[in-house]
């Protein structure tokens, strides 16, 4: 085996293919910093697996972190920002624009956009993804069929898990039909909840469906700045009552940022005891909450990440919307999203890296740990440590899968 320093890890140019070939025969990576570990390490790669992981006497070999798990995306909406008539000034303005655009979606359009998204995510280092899909009728939307096909095609590269997304008020009419389809697809049942009337009864019906069909739940909840948006309180109480720990995930929770801190602290402790998880979406929420025209936003709608984790909740970070009416930016790069989260949420990077990797991976029934004997799947960065990587977003990156470095990010991309 030969030693490989930082230079051959570049993701572009002819040198990028050399370590991939050598990796099959045996490759030694020296002087690495590994996420979650002190000191420097050497990694031996053989036959697509990590054959050895040992302390190193060398330094300067770069930084290695696990592959990524993006637990909250919207592949049906993605890459439509250029078709929006204007910039969204509120959540519900974005919803209306997206509904209008969705009227023109067909299989070819959906496959092209979602395929592009999966390709970008894969080449940036994402191995697992959950996509929510809008669902307003008893029959599955076209996007459901397209994304199920793509999930099969991408198996082995990105494990794609689907989640239905239906407004809570529609469950009385179509909930049973949705739940049956979700069960058949081995997917997740989801609902949009925001200041609904008769909340407890309607939510109870969703939980009934989940229990009857043995489904996990993933809620878009309290995605606004109204202090009377308390859907998450009802979800926590219902989860605790039914004993569904580890099967109920809440995304957004923007209204928590506006409520009394003592009250929120009590709620988060109850959520942790009930086993409810929290997904924080810093990109879209910080962009869309308190949006307007001709004024600087004051309120960012960031869910209380630190407090939730301190209370014992499983806290995750997701991409959410990418280049659509809700959020016109992004590239399915969770490293970039993590950098934004660290800045917006004052996160200590080393303590929070698991929020885009092992924690969501575990929630989806997998593990992405870099370990001896495991697959040679990881991300290498030309950086001294994670803080250095966050400080230099243009630092060279190489994504390793099965002991090979992936080709240039856009080479062979579906368009």
UniProtKB/TrEMBL annotation:
Tell me the ranges covered by the Amidohydrolase domain, including all copies: 200-406
- Output the Gene3D superfamilies linked to this UniProt entry: Metal-dependent hydrolases, Urease, subunit C, domain 1
Where do the record's region annotations for Disordered lie? Answer: 1-22
* Top-level taxonomic group: Bacteria
Q: What is this protein called?
A: Cytosine deaminase
Q: Per the record's keyword annotation, is Hydrolase included, yes or no?
A: yes
- Organism per entry: Aquamicrobium terrae
The EC number(s) given in the record are 3.5.4.1
Per UniProt, the keywords (alphabetical) are: Hydrolase
Has the keyword Disulfide bond been applied to this entry?
Answer: no
Which GO terms fall under molecular function for this chain's record?
A: cytosine deaminase activity
What is one Pfam family matched by this protein? Amidohydro_3
InterPro entries per UniProt? Amidohydro_3 (IPR013108), Metal-dep_hydrolase_composite (IPR011059), Metal_Hydrolase (IPR032466), Metallo-hydrolase_Enzymes (IPR052349)
